[in-house]
Amino acid sequence: MSPDLYADAEFYDQLHDGYRDDLGFYRGLAEDFGGPVLELGAGSGRVTLALALAGFEVVAVEPAAAMQARGAARLATAGVADRAMWLDADARTLALERRFPLVIAPFHMLMHLATLDDQDAALSAARAHVAPGGAFATDVYVPRFGPVGVVRVEPAWAGLDGDLSTWQVVDPVAQTVVTEHRLDRTRADGTVHRRSATLRQRFFHRFELERALRAAGFGRVRTFGGFDRGPVTEGASTWAYLAQP
Ligand SMILES: C[S@@+](CC[C@H](N)C(=O)[O-])C[C@H]1O[C@@H](n2cnc3c(N)ncnc32)[C@H](O)[C@@H]1O
After folding, report:
1. Which of 43, 107, 147, 226 sits between 20 and 30 A of 199, alpha carbons compared?
2. Same domain, 193 and 103
3. Is any atom of ligand 1 closer than 6 Å to the C-beta of 204?
């Protein structure tokens, strides 16, 4: 298998910088609940920047050094470095001596928690950092997978400097999915340069995550069928959760 995607933050950004679908959702919640915002798994600052540009202070928790470095640089380039504080910490063991009107774990962050203990620890920590009247928000993708065990060409991933393909292994019993991304560039001499990285996730089912949020102390959990805060429908590709104590 190729290296972990979060060790190659530049590749992560190549793949995901253009993803904007969730920005309005998280910015809108920051407007509703107020800042500062605690972001768990802030990565390379895609959502962090959107919040900072909207005027919110963000405490950005990110354990992968390469991702955090790119995130800090991204905000510095945009002139809003002073709106974010970056913490090399783990969502499962986070214990800050402050609470936040809004805690978020965007872009499938919870799918990196491989065991029930990990999930419970992170959700309890999230709950512990929500201020009275505040909320926790997150999103996961609906686990519908394309053909597995074959190389899939990904033409929809437009704007990349090369040809992207993915190779996916889904274990429906363990509820895990391993995705290898491969970006191939053909050089002038006819040889192909390949950049590849692996993403490991554990997927959720809708009510499983609702139940986990309740167990962590969130008494009011709303699940949306997308980032427009609409109802869950059969065709939804994302479940976005808003949980309040
Ligand atoms: C899919 S990325 C999302 C990054 C960013 N929020 C975005 O929207 O582009 C998930 C991030 O969660 C981080 N992560 C994984 N496990 C974590 C943990 N236990 N605690 C905090 N962050 C974690 C990863 O390093 C990665 O940067």
Report:
1. 226
2. no
3. no
- Which residue has tokens 């929809």? 156
Q: Is the CB of 22 under 6 A from ligand 1?
A: no
Q: What is the mean pLDDT of residues 107-121?
A: 98
State phi, psi for 151 to the nearest 5 degrees.
-80, 125
What mean pLDDT is predicted for residues 107-134?
A: 98
Residue 173 and residue 78 in one domain: no
User: Is residue 232 located within the same domain as residue 177?
Assistant: no
Q: Does the pLDDT of residue 1 top 80, yes or no? A: no
The answer, yes or no, to whether any atom of ligand 1 lies below 6 A from the CB of 43, is yes
Same domain, 181 and 208: no
Q: From atom 13 of ligand 1, which residue's Cα is the shortest distance away?
A: 41
**What's the structural domain count of the chain?**
2
Q: How far is the CA of 91 from the centre of ligand 1 (A)?
A: 9
> Whose Cα sits closest to atom 15 in ligand 1?
112
157-182 pLDDT, tens digit per residue, is 767 889 999 999 999 999 999 999 99
CB atoms within 10 A of CB 217: 15
Q: Are residues 211 and 191 in the same domain?
A: no
Question: Does 229 lie in the same domain as 114?
Answer: yes
Helix boundaries (H) for the chain: 9-16, 23-33, 46-53, 65-77, 116-128, 206-215
The DSSP secondary-structure symbol of 4 reads B
